[in-house]
Each structure stands twice: as C-alpha cells, then as structure tokens.
Amino acid sequence: MSIWGLDHINIDTAKPDETLDFYTELLGLENRPQERPAFDFPGAWLFAGDRAVIHLNFLDEPKPATTGAFNHVAFEADGFGELTAMLDDRGVEYRSRVRPELGLTQIFVTDPNGIRVELNVREP
To answer: Which domains, ranges and CATH numbers included, belong to the chain?
Structure first.
C-alpha cells in the first residue's frame, strides 16, 4: 500500500453561505450539487477540475473545534496577481511569502470557519 495524494477535506460549518462564497467566488472551486450523493444531511461538494476536493457539511450550530493539531490545508494555485487583487477588493486579510527555495509564492488566508488555507503559486 502507498498513499499518493490527498482526496478531499471535510468541513463542518454553520456558515454555509459565507463558506460557499469563500471557496467558490474567492478561490474558484465549483459547487456541483448534482454530483453530490443524496445524503440525509445538507452540504455541498466543491470541485477543482474533476475532483471534489472539499466536502461541506451544513450545521445549524457550530461545533466546538476538535481538530487538535490540524494546522492548515494547502492547494496549488495560479494567478497570483488576480487572486491578491480579489482579496484586496473584498477586504480579506492575507499574507504572502516568496519561497525561492521551493520555487513558489505562498498566500495564507483564513476561511469563515477559522481554517487556515495556503495557496501555492508556482508562476514566475
């Protein structure tokens, strides 16, 4: 057996509208309700290309944080200037860091649920 990639992350949220907006409008993932199985609880699957990389579970009330040492989730991205301009336009706080030893620039932003998201941009 070997692990060769990350399939998806699952987020419980009592802020469905804000969370959907963050990941679809801001980060460009696609909500495809028709491709989410007919579970007996509300939610959404958000796609990057042909993979549902984020599964959202919509809650009536927030759950206490129980992820312990979980630090962040990271995605490959492109369009650094476009992305930072959109973050600036929406007043979303972020920080960026050039990492020449890794050949990328990182953007760190926090989603509406307090989850830190890292975006790795490998453009010149």
So the answer is: 9-63+71-121 (3.10.180.10)
Q: Select from 19, 8, 68, 73 the least CA-distant residue to 42.
A: 19
Q: What is the pTM of this model?
A: 0.85
Amino acid identity of 55?
H
pLDDT, tens digit (0-9, with 9 covering 90-100), for 43-97: 999 999 999 999 999 999 887 766 665 778 889 898 899 999 999 999 999 999 9
Tell me the C-alpha distance between 92 and 107, whole Å. 12
The C-alpha atoms of residue 8 and residue 10 are separated, in whole angstroms, by 7
Q: Encoding tokens for residue 73? A: 């989730």
